[in-house]
UniProtKB/TrEMBL annotation:
Native organism: Henosepilachna vigintioctopunctata
Family: In the N-terminal section; belongs to the glycosyltransferase 20 family.
Record GO cellular component, one term: cytosol
Protein name: Trehalose-phosphate synthase
Domain of life: Eukaryota
Gene: TPS
Spans annotated as Disordered: 1-28, 853-873
One protein family per Pfam: Trehalose_PPase
Compositionally skewed regions (Polar residues) per UniProt: 13-28, 856-865
Gene Ontology MF term list: alpha,alpha-trehalose-phosphate synthase (UDP-forming) activity; trehalose-phosphatase activity
GO BP annotation list: trehalose biosynthetic process
Length: 873
């Protein structure tokens, strides 16, 4: 629709032209891909085969599954009831669809309409279809069907109401509704399940070689959680695959991202991919920073790596391009749009608050005020493509924009000239190419944007000589890569007006030089180059031995130096250290059976040496019974807490046992019998720990686990016990308010007195959900570490460690640190077990008095029922 305020002036056809001889020819020159940091400069010569073809990349890795919010086409229902495909515009479809088609891949996405019958078949392409998706057969498409209300909440609520403004650094516009978030989770799970269906179908395909590993490429902010369930289920079903993710919008800095209530889940969802791609390096660094500060992950900023669940996740800047040659062809064929009587400053944007349209108009108004010589000589053409027209905020933006245009036009219009021409509506690419080609200035000044392809389209269509000038915002990804453009801060109205003035008065030779460099780079770094770059980077993950520098794609093992930064200053040169350690999954690797979880000899030896250091106090806090954990560790002179602290054996031989209800032991025996009778089958078994029971189902076939686990939960609850969730295990805990958090506080107070928090430094290390109780109780008073070998773990720990080997390294660091200081004259063992310890032990045994504990640990931890952990914790 064209606004009647000031319709665009259209004149004669423009004759087809080729590249002007004054423009440097592309075939004989090198172009450059330049990002912000010098380490990411990359020279490119078109005669060299630096990248394999897309088909070669896919063939080397296996078939590809593309997962996006929408399919590469949308379905439309005709009046006769038939479904037909309607082509989707965009470079992503143009570049990726051939990869899926040629690589025998699949595409997963929403079909664009809600079908009453989800089983209604997807139609084939219409005869004569020449769009990029014409060869995508219906059996290569998996449509995701979601309840319309749920989809609306997911898309309009969470995606566009929360993530869109927040990721564009406009938190005041973001809404945080729990119902929208829950629907976002639901839809992502549905996309994940459909992707798994696609993955299983590839596994069964006879013409797919067994050695090939399928690549799953997930796109954009609508699907940031999907990889979590894809990886989890693929690993359980032993289906190999590689996961890649690309975010098409900005990734915000830490101080913005931390506002998101569900940031933990979002980061972990993205980290379940093997590689995460962003447009520019700044977004990569923001992501890496958030992973370290929000999740406590180990990161490598130089090589852009994040360690998660024992894996190295690669983070890469991959600026997307456009189908450059297609826009050149459109520009050559498009009729002449502007007469040339006036210079045109062109803006083409979706009507969205991130695009800075109001700021742009105010800058143009300021230009006309400060530089009256441009009146009657320059006009602005603003194309505003309708977006979210049913949302009040967007309706108000449209109204504000049109009122401002009316005011400016009313202020400056003369009988022969109008300063602003405005189109509100869709404009075809054919017509748009003419606008791009004939405009003197292309103005791309969003307040925040992931990349903004309009800047690249403008450059591609600048085929005439002398060319025009591109103005870009530094807050768009394009501003980080298109350095020959004029940079304009849209927030500074007066400064923006001066940039427009400079563009309008720029000498011809400077315009040619700047545009030549821009065109050369964008021609090479087109959308096909982007696709090849992503797949090539993923390809090196399939064959890391082919990579020149393995260190650039793999996090190095944890070293002693890793702990210097945040432990040396904390512990200092004089403080005593209380070291509280879990056993299974922390000191000893997880094993199929508890009896097989043996602590490595080196770990035991260093623990023995640490126990002899007067300034180091050690306590092992485990889910095993106290006698068993002492037997497994086998070190005298340290404290052991068993059954999550229900029984504690102090180093001096005194023992604490938490009071139990009188009938508890009888109930334990009865529950044990029921569990053995009703659910101990298919490899499941029950471990009797005395005060509690653990039902293990690790050896049960995957498809039977959930059913058996649910039966066990019901039996535990019916018997009056608390249910504890473990990894491949269910715990039956006695109905008492005691956990590792309370246990830790009790141990520390018993050993160091009521003012323990002022006298010592504390390190707590665990791998289990029950360790979360301790990490929350000690928050702000201890350095806490969670050993995370699983991909989906939410934790209160300050830092994550990838394995039990890294715990050994931590112990070595502690030994090295204390070897450098002179031992204190007072040995903490002299006051660990005095009358205070006996008095407190007696008090707790007789009265279970919780007044001795801080309020923070008297509260239940909500973590206990929501996170995975190891068998015996």
């Amino acid at each position: 629709m064209c606004n009647p305020m000031s319709p665009p002036h259209v004149t004669n056809k423009h004759a087809n032209t080729s590249e002007n001889s004054s423009i440097v020819q592309h075939g004989s020159h090198s172009s450059y891909l330049h990002t912000k940091h010098e380490s990411f400069w990359r020279a490119w010569n078109e005669d060299e085969q630096m990248f394999r073809t897309v088909k070669d990349v896919v063939t080397s890795s296996g078939s590809m599954i593309v997962v996006s919010n929408r399919l590469p086409f949308v379905l439309k229902r005709l009046e006769d009831g038939r479904l037909i495909r309607k082509a989707s515009a965009g470079g992503l479809v143009t570049a990726v669809a051939p990869v899926v088609i040629n690589g025998n891949g699949l595409w997963v996405g929403w079909p664009g309409i809600h079908l009453e019958d989800p089983n209604e078949p997807i139609p084939e392409s219409e005869p004569g279809d020449i769009t990029p998706t014409a060869g995508l057969k219906s059996d290569k498409v998996i449509a995701v069907h979601v309840d319309p209300d749920v989809f609306d909440s997911y898309y309009n609520g969470c995606c566009n109401g929360t993530f869109w403004p927040l990721f564009h650094s406009m938190p005041d516009r973001a809404t945080f509704k729990l119902t929208d978030w829950k629907d976002y989770v639901t839809v992502n799970k549905e996309f994940a399940e459909c992707t798994l269906t696609a993955l299983r179908s590839l596994k069964k395909t006879k013409d797919t070689p067994q050695h090939e590993v399928p690549l799953i490429w997930v796109h954009d902010y609508q699907l940031m959680l999907a990889a979590s369930w894809i990886r989890q289920n693929a690993e359980e079903e032993e289906i190999p695959c590689k996961l890649g993710f690309f975010l098409h919008i900005p990734f915000p800095p830490w101080d913005i991202f931390r506002l998101l209530p569900w940031g933990d889940e979002i980061l972990q969802g993205m980290l379940n991919c093997d590689m995460v791609g962003f447009h520019i390096t700044d977004y990569c660094l923001n992501f890496v920073d958030c992973c370290q500060r929000y999740l406590g992950c180990r990161v490598d900023r130089k090589n852009l790596l994040v360690e998660q669940g024992g894996r190295s996740v690669r983070v890469r800047p991959l600026p997307i391009g456009i189908p450059f040659e297609r826009f050149v062809e459109l520009a050559e064929k498009a009729p002449k749009v502007f007469s040339g009587e006036h210079k045109i400053v062109l803006g083409v944007d979706r009507l969205d608050y991130t695009k800075g349209l109001v700021h742009r108009l105010l800058a143009f108004e300021k230009l006309l005020q400060d530089h009256p010589e441009h009146r009657g000589q320059v006009s602005m053409m603003q194309v505003a493509v309708p977006s979210r027209t049913d949302v009040k905020e967007y309706q108000e933006l449209k109204e504000t924009l049109e009122q401002l245009i009316g005011r400016i036009n009313g202020k400056f219009t003369t009988p022969n000239w109008s300063p602003i021409r405005y189109i509100y509506g869709q404009v075809s690419q054919d017509e748009l190419a003419g606008y791009y080609r004939d405009a003197f200035v292309g103005m791309v000044t969003p307040l925040r944007d992931g990349m903004n392809l309009v800047a690249k389209e403008f450059v591609a269509c600048q085929i005439d000589s002398p060319p025009g000038v591109l103005i870009v915002s530094p807050f768009a990804g394009a501003g980080e890569t298109m350095h020959e453009a004029l940079i304009c801060n849209p927030y500074e109205i007066a400064g923006a007006a001066e940039v427009i003035h400079r563009a309008l008065t720029m000498p011809e030779d400077e315009r040619i030089l700047r545009m030549n460099y821009l065109r050369r780079r964008e021609k090479v770094n087109d959308v096909n180059f982007w696709t090849k770059s992503f797949l090539s980077a993923m390809g090196s993950l399939f064959k890391p031995e082919d990579h020149d520098d393995v260190g650039s794609i793999m996090m190095p093992a944890v070293t002693l130096d890793d702990f210097d930064e945040y432990l040396a200053k904390y512990i200092g040169d004089s403080h005593k250290l209380a070291l509280l350690l879990d056993y299974d999954g922390t000191l000893a690797p997880i094993a199929p059976h508890p009896d097989l979880a043996v602590m490595p000899t080196e770990t035991k030896n260093i623990l023995q040496r640490l126990s002899n250091i007067s300034d180091v106090y050690i306590a092992i806090v485990s889910g095993r019974n106290v006698n068993n954990v002492k037997e497994m560790v086998g070190i005298e002179g340290i404290t052991y807490a068993g059954n999550h602290g229900l029984e504690i054996l102090h180093s001096d031989g005194t023992k604490f046992v938490h009071p139990m209800p009188a009938e508890c032991q009888e109930k334990v025996s009865a529950l044990l019998a029921k569990l053995q009778e009703q659910v101990c089958r298919e490899g499941a078994w029950v471990e009797n720990k005395g005060a509690l029971l653990t039902f293990h189902f690790r050896e049960v076939p995957v498809h039977l686990r959930e059913d058996l686990a649910q039966q066990a939960r019901i039996l535990v609850e019916e018997a009056g016990f608390h249910v504890g969730k473990a990894h491949c295990a269910i715990e039956a805990k006695p109905p008492v308010e005691w956990n590792k958090g309370r246990t830790s506080i009790y141990i520390l107070r018993t050993a160091f007195g009521v003012d323990w928090s002022e006298r010592i430094r504390i390190i707590y290390v665990g791998d289990d959900v029950t360790d979360e109780d301790a990490m929350m109780a000690l928050k702000g008073m201890a350095a806490t570490f969670r050993v995370t070998t699983s991909n989906i773990i939410k934790t209160s720990a300050e830092r994550r460690l990838p394995s039990t080997d890294s715990v050994l390294t931590l112990l070595k660091w502690i030994e090295r640190h204390f070897s450098k200081r002179t031992p204190n004259e007072i040995n903490p063992t002299s006051y660990r077990r005095g009358s205070l310890a006996k008095a407190i032990t007696k008090n707790v045994q007789m009265e279970c008095d919780m007044s001795m504990l801080p309020k923070t640990v008297s509260q239940k931890s909500s973590a206990a029922n929501s996170r995975e952990h190891s068998d015996n914790e």
